[in-house]
Amino acid sequence: MAVMMYWEAIRRAHDEEMARDPLVICMGEDIGVVGGTYKATQGLYDKYGPERVIDTPISENSYTGLGIGASFLGIRPIIEIMSVNFAWLATDQIFNSAAKVRYMSGGQLTAPVVIRSPGGTAHQLGAQHSARMEKVFMGIAGLRVVTPSSPRQAYGLLKSAVRCNDPVFINEHELMYNMKGEVPDAEYFHPLEGSEVTRAGKDVTLFGYNISVHWCVQAAEQLAKDGIDCEVIDLYSLSPLNRAGIKKSVSKTHRAIVVEEAEAPVGVGSEVMAIINEECFFELDVAPVRVSAVNVPIPYNHHLEKAAIPNAKKVVEAVRKMLGK
Amino acid sequence: MNAADKKRLLREMLFARRFEERCYEAYVERKIGGFLHLYPGEEACAFGVLDAARPGHDYVITGYRDHVHALKCGADPKKVMAELFGKETGSSKGRGGSMHIFDAEHRFMGGYALVGGPFPLAVGMAKGIKMKGGDEISICFLGDAANNQGTFHESLNMAALWELPVLFVCENNLYGIGTRIDRSTAVIEQHKRVQAYNIPSNQVDGQDIEQVYAAAKIAVDHVRSGKGPYFLELMTYRYRGHSMSDSNAYRAKEEERMWGKRDPIIILRDRLIEAGELGMDDYKRMDDEVLEFIEKEVIKFAEESPEPKLEELEKYVLAENDPYVRGGVH
Lengths: 325, 330
Ligand SMILES: Cc1ncc(C[n+]2csc(CCOP(=O)(O)OP(=O)(O)O)c2C)c(N)n1
Ligand SMILES: [Mg+2]
Prior knowledge:
The structure holds two protein chains of two kinds. Chain A is an alpha/beta fold. Chain A contains 13 helices and 14 strands. The longest helix of chain A is centred in the N-terminal third of the chain and has 15 residues, at 6-20. By secondary structure, chain B is α/β, with parallel strands linked by helices. Chain B has twelve helices and eight strands. In chain B, the strands form two sheets. In chain B, strands 2-1-3-4-8-7 form a six-stranded parallel β-sheet, sandwiched between helices. The longest helix of chain B is centred in the N-terminal third of the chain and has 26 residues, at 3-28. Chain B is globular. At the A-B interface, helix 3 and helix 12 of A face loops of B.
């Protein structure tokens, strides 16, 4: 297994899929000559040329729609949107076209597109560059939403997303592109559905996804020193959420905390708590809680920004409070 | 434009240049965070256009490269710098940052981070002006690459259809981040693109403030006289990277050198010197005064100002004490 960075893993998946299938293309702003804001397509322009590595104008809704239209004819576009904050502009085509065309056409058309975009709060980028919008995407029928927490997942999920016949939205994170991790040397397809047990434990389950998995792991390591044994579940598939995986872990620990970088309303936390209610309410020893962002547009000021967003310390506090320790 | 006006504008542009350069340093010192987009090279655009308009009275809106437009509208440089430092005394109370300078008192209606976002907002302000019967106009400054957003075309159509008092100023610096205009845009001459909407337009050298001013005067008069929208394209160049994280590697050095020789400040300065209106020593003194003011007043204020209080994280999310939240006042 090679250790590589998150962006390198994404680049490798692009490269392998483009080498294999001439109908795989990638498109987005500054992805070609510049090689991508986060280097995810570095070198591909020189290798595959401008017909397949397309620098688009700043026209998010229309180039995304263009990619969706091409996918009707069997092209496999990987569309990069520089930030989910700009993906808002493309939601018309993603939600109204890609997500619905299979159903509206009674199964005649499909939109096998991949849309990749980093969503999350980086450092002081201000309200219009710091939103998390996975909560919106995961609420749309007909769309798959995955969110890699490691280079291995980033590689394997993109590989599967390109081959899958459904539209897949991949929610990445600006702060994770330089994160290192092991990626299998052999070709690897990560399942698009399911969840992973990142750390087994018996006292309480910490549900995380993408960056919040890391806060959960850090919190678990710290709490382990005090004899508190946390289980960490990585919900890399946000749509559909893995009901069985959620049930299994809560039935084991009987306590649940959902950790999400986004604000609480209409979020992953609300959804996971609803699933717990539906699947295993009587397994609970205590009411589940959420560790989420404060419900504000993200402020520029560094201290306010930190106060608005969860972190490992806030997870530790939530666990201690729940366990009365 | 008389000699006194030219000298005043020279000083204003020089101030803007030094202000931005000082931002660069403060960013390196980590006093400023986030994305920082600077304006050096493009000064004649904002100053030439707004000098022909009525800054502080007309409504102005732009993108993320917004410090200098705010300053020309009348925003206090101390407050703008304090905003960049994230301080409570900043123009947006430290909540906005570099891309979101606002000064409603001076009708600087903001900097917005999403490319193309301000187009419809500018048209909407023009609608407001028309309904209220004022003599203001709405002025929208955006880059060349923004014209590839749908909002550009949708907004031009409505502005023309309803004859709204809005001036679109396109600061054409030939790039959208690292993508050169001919690689993103089918029609390179932006002023031609608006002809499809029957909007009068013009294109001038954005490095020469006198040309910008003269063209802007015609544009502003057109819009203010109730004849509807106007589109002014200014050919310019940014001397730095797109933002602080940009290495500029995609630009040919020869191209940079060529535009470097067309510095709007140097062009105006040399013209004044040639006309015998200014000496090199006057210019030097002007520069020293500007630098001293920035250091002793602007930076000092930003540094010494307090941070926002953590308890006030949730302030400004919604209106405070709006009576209709409880069903109105009877
Ligand atoms: C909707 C949206 N898409 C993409 C971006 C990223 N982005 C920021 S500035 C920029 C280039 C804009 O170029 P231009 O309009 O020419 O203005 P300039 O920066 O050259 O002044 C891009 C692509 C964004 N901020 N918003
Ligand atoms: Mg530009």
